[in-house]
Specification:
The protein has 173 residues and is an alpha+beta fold. The protein contains four helices and 13 strands. The two termini are 29 Å apart.
Length: 173
Amino acid sequence: MKVAIDKNGNLAYINQASTNQSFFCPECHQLLIVKTSKKGRKYFAHYNRKANHQGETSEHLTGKSQIYEWAKQNGWHPQLEVSLPLIDQRADILCQIGTQVVAIEFQCSPLSVKAITARNQGYRLSGIKCYWFLGQRYLKHLHTNKIAQFTHWYQNQPVLYFWNINSGNRECQ
């Protein structure tokens, strides 16, 4: 893992981390430690391996942290991993853009149309606007039946948003 949360609640990147600081997992909020791989690369690891959050790829964790920083630079007051118990969902990033609460979901792994529809409906019923940013997998494998669920309207044009973790930027198609 290359990103963690420091004791002040700020994102910390592994290249800025020292071993005498405390870090926490952005997913499960458990204690992390700084380790070094056999190739000499530093990374964050869960202090208690059993606490490791399953199912999130490196692309997802990196992209979420980049999108969080991007939203922060835009003055949107982002929060990571916000639980929304009324709709039994957790937003990757929840922002305040003017008077509108906005959820940003960064989707890297396969997700069924039924699950996408349910999430969109939950956000809509809560008065939360949702933007989906898609990972690299979806550049090559976006099925027609999912396109409508991920599409946003911008200036009366349908748009799909992708997030490129290599450039740390949003891309539109």
